């Protein structure tokens, strides 16, 4: 894994990662008990779409192609408006930092986080597989670390969930790393996660933004 | 230095329950006629503070926005200010131009201070009910925030605290930086606070306000910083507004 990929996966990167629970907060409020199953569900659905979106963004930029079709494909596969808002908000925070660090392509304003990550990968030479892995790994750690804030847990247990999910992450990476067209992005939505995201966006009692 | 047209970003920090939201409502109520004000709150678990300030009717509700901090209020104002910066920018884009954006930290602990990349100046708030020894114990905010407010002085008789002693502790800990012993029932102390905020707006507009980081716990940090502070442009501040503030608060009680 490249050092820049490690940097992008590091929770200390100042891009507002601490405001996120990966949808875990509303899921627990709705009665979720099995967090490892939730991690697996995300890898199979919303995170898979995100990773593929990032990889296809990178492929487009490598070929010098525009990003409109990638954006449209991502938006069509991210059914929840609240989740699209969250992803654009995170993309904006990341872009704000990244433009101070690297020469990024212009006109990235308003793009979701996976597309900004794809652009960063393009500017820094991060390979497709690393890019997909960063997104999947970050999602696992986002949920696991939020669980420590939301439930009484031994931190070692939360980390063990992440470790146990790594084989599934490796499979995800192998499946999306070679994708290069917007139509390749899997439409693996999760209506349950999407509905919870919509509910969470309008609640007044929440620790996490999303 | 060049004049600036960007709003002054003023941080309000301090432990939970010391009166940060009340201080903001006071500033909105008393300065709202002369300054265009916006508010960003960093709540711990709800948008309670934002709602309370909206409900107070002292400011157009659309000028008050809340940031969720994921149970990390100190991170959101210091190590990773992304969410707050975006909130300030959005607020100004939607409701600006503004003169001042007040950024309220989530009530945290005595060590939390704002990054100078987020705010231009910061007020640290403690209160007499938190214990008369808090000022003496010190910390980066108490010692080096631009202004220290010792709040709720009217409660001192009920909690067995000697306000004069607590203020003297604070003044001693701050090496000349201003202290306001505040009670919203004491008009003179309120006037001193308002005048300090006006002076910060004026300094900011004239380009003379340079963010000073209270910094981490470091026993002699202020001594190094202070040489620069007095020798540089801020010498003017010490001779002017600051001295004025001290004179005022000396007569406040």
Automatic annotation (TrEMBL), chain A:
Q: Does the keyword tRNA processing apply?
A: no
Query: Which Pfam families does the record cross-reference, listed alphabetically?
Result: UreF
List the coiled-coil residues.
none
Q: Does the keyword Endoplasmic reticulum apply?
A: no
- Give the superkingdom in one word: Bacteria
Per UniProt, the keywords (alphabetical) are:
Chaperone, Nickel insertion
Q: Which PANTHER family match?
A: UREASE ACCESSORY PROTEIN F
Protein name, please?
Answer: Urease accessory protein UreF
Automatic annotation (TrEMBL), chain B:
- Give the UniProt keywords, A-Z: Chaperone, Cytoplasm, GTP-binding, Nickel insertion, Nucleotide-binding
Q: Where is the CobW/HypB/UreG nucleotide-binding domain?
A: 10-180
Coiled-coil regions, chain positions: none
Can you tell which superkingdom this protein's organism belongs to?
A: Bacteria
Pfam family membership, one: cobW
Q: Where is this region: Disordered?
A: 230-253
Q: Which InterPro entries match?
A: CobW/HypB/UreG_nucleotide-bd (IPR003495), P-loop_NTPase (IPR027417), UreG (IPR004400)
List positions binding GTP.
Answer: 14-21
Q: What does the UniProt record say this protein does?
A: Facilitates the functional incorporation of the urease nickel metallocenter. This process requires GTP hydrolysis, probably effectuated by UreG.
- Family annotation (HAMAP family): UreG
Mind telling me what this protein is named?
A: Urease accessory protein UreG
Q: Which organism is it from?
A: Nocardioides astragali
